[in-house]
Every structure is written in structure tokens, then in C-alpha cells.
Amino acid sequence: MGNPLVTVRLVATAALFALALAPDSAHASASASASASGDAGASADAPRPAIGASLFASSDADGTEVTKLGIDFDLARVGREEALGVRLERARFAPAGGTPETATRAYLRLVRPVAPEWQIDSLVGTDGERLLGTAALVHAVPLRKEFFVEREIVETPQGLALGLSSTLAGASLDVPLGARAQLTLVGAALDFSGDNRRLHARANAIYAIAPDAGVSLQLRGRYFRDSVPREYDYYAPGDYLQLLPVVQVQRFAAGWRYRLAGGWGAQKERGSDWRGSRLIEARVTSPASGRVSLEAQALYSEVPTILGEGYAYGQVALAARTRL
Questions:
Q1: Best CA proximity match to 172, nearest among 135, 133, 201
Q2: Taking the model in full, what pTM does it have?
Q3: Tens digit of each residue's pLDDT (9 = 90 or more) over 82-102
Q4: With 0-12 CB in 10 A as exposed, 13-18 as middle and 19+ as buried, what is 59?
Q5: CB within 8 A of 187, min separation 6: which ones?
Q6: What is the CA radius of gyration of the chain?
Q7: Helix (H) or strand (E) run with residue 54 in it
Q8: CA-CA distance, 95 to 169, in Å (whole number)?
Q9: Cβ–Cβ contacts within 10 Å for residue 263, how many?
């Protein structure tokens, strides 16, 4: 995955193939929400053990590459709504201009309701040196709320050599605006090793222009500010702003969900002029209630690389699971 242009072709091919699988008679989503939380309805099955595997691979214009291969062992699982298990992961980080490193990680997965309409979704573990992973508390109501924390290493030459990490904590809110529209707001703080503190703000305005066809228009905005710009070698320009109009098509067929999104906008960092920013994303998700579940995602985005020397990033993620 050393060339993000390869990812562009992969995304486009996967997206067209996915949409081709969805017949014209398939039920299209009338909801404006683009949240992955609505992948499928709740399963009434009893909890059962499950095993699975996942692959994540990314590369950027600078040549930084990340690969993660995971094996999941669930003691009890009900669709995607409840799970208790462990994940063993082998990760490889190859930063541009640095020495590749590998790490073995172990995680505990917990997904379950904790109160009426509240659910916890967590994958928390360690690489033997520090706490890593994600945890979210979700209030699944029309005015949906999510509180989240994420911790990961900094995947740059200095980040690997010095053991740098980052911790992101924040909240999101989905605001319904009638039958066809929705506004999603996200606020977060990113705490890096050292003195830099980054404040994040995101917004996504969504309007379903053709609900029966699953077509929506979106305007995505992102802004962040660093308290200590360029403290280490990761991208930290001080201020960054992105505005991205997006067209999304989402369809359902026999419980499968197919989603394709593409956008073209602009971005700007402190001390620079505006430059273009494009996005293409494809995602396929199987029904949650079956014995076997599959998920696939491919993405290409023209955003600053982790070193800030280029403006292209691509990733592919695959996951499969079967209940025993």
C-alpha cells in the first residue's frame, strides 16, 4: 500500500461492485444519518461464542505504512449489540524515513447495554508498555449522544523512538432536523505526549435529497488548533480547517448495507493558501443477525499526512466473524 493512488482505484472498484450488487428494488435508507451505529437491527439470538479476524492497512503520500492483523475470541456475542471477548493483534508501523517496528497487543472487548437506551462499546488493551484502545458510551435515542476516549501511539520516527502517544476524549451529538435532515456535532481534545494539546471541532450537515434512492448531500467541516505547534515530527501546524461537500449513496439489499461517498472541497493550515481536498469512501456490511458477519471498508482522502509533507492518505479494513 505504498502508493495511495492504488487505494483510489481499489475504492472506486469496490464501490461500483458493491452498488451493482444492490438491485433497484432494494430498500434504500430514508434516514439522513450516516452513523455506523445503524448497521443493522437488534438480534434476538442467545449469546454464543464466536471467532473472527480483522485486517487494517494504510499508507500515505510520504510513505508511512501501518498494518494490523487481529484475531478475535468472543466468549459471548449477540450480533453487533453485545460481545465479551479478547483480541490478539500484531501491528507493524513503518514510518517514512524511520525504522519499522512491530508490536503484539492484547485487548479486552466489551459491548453491552448498561441502562435503557445506553450502551458501552470498548476495546481496551496494551502492548506491554502502555494502555491503548477505545471506549465509548452511547445514548441511542433520536437525539443520539456519544462520549468517547481513544488512545494510540504516534506513528512517526520520533513517536516510535521516544514512545510518544496521544489520547483523544470528546463527545458527539446527532440533532434531527425534520424527516430528511440531521446535524452531527463533535467536540474533542487530543492530548499528546509532551506539551501539545489539540482542540477539535467537527460538524456534518446532512440532507436526504432522494430518500427512496438513499442519496444525501452533506457538508462536512473540521477545525483544530494546537497549543504547541510542531513540538515533535508529527503534523501540528497550529491551525487547520477543512470544508468538504459530500454526496453519499446508501442502499440495502437482503440485510446487506452498501454505502458510497465522494466529496471535493478545500483545506487550509496556518500560513498557507487554500488547497483542494478530495474524498472517496466505500463500505459494505453484512446482516448482524446471521451466523457469519462481514465488513469491508476502503477510503482515500486528500488530507495532510502524519508528517505533514504530503496530502494523500488511503486505508483498507476487512473483518469477518462466525459464531460457534
A1: 201
A2: 0.83
A3: 999 999 999 999 999 889 999
A4: buried
A5: 170, 171, 172, 200, 201, 202
A6: 20
A7: strand 48-60
A8: 25
A9: 21
Share of the chain residues as helix, strand and coil, in percent rounded to the nearest 5: 10, 60, 30
In the chain, the amino acid numbered 31 is S
Does residue 84 contact residue 75 with C-beta atoms inside 8 Å?
A: yes
Distance CA 315, CA 299 (A): 5
**Over the stretch 221-241, which tens digit does the pLDDT of each residue have?**
999 999 999 999 999 999 999
User: What domains can you pick out in the chain, each with its CATH number?
Assistant: 4-323 (2.40.160.40)
Residue with cell 477505545: 134
Cell 447495554, residue located = 113
Q: What contacts 9, CB < 8 A, 6 or more positions away? A: none
Which residues, in sequence order, are bridge partners of residue 168? 150, 190
Question: What's the chain's length in residues?
Answer: 324
Angle at 168 between CA 310 and CA 146, to 5 degrees: 115
Distance CA 191, CA 213 (A): 42
CB-hemisphere CA count at 13 Å for 204? 19
- Cβ neighbours of residue 231 under 8 Å, at least 6 residues apart? 192, 194, 195, 196
DSSP state of 226: E
In sequence order, the 6+-apart residues with CB closer than 8 A to the CB of 77 are: 47, 48, 49, 50, 83, 84, 85, 321, 323
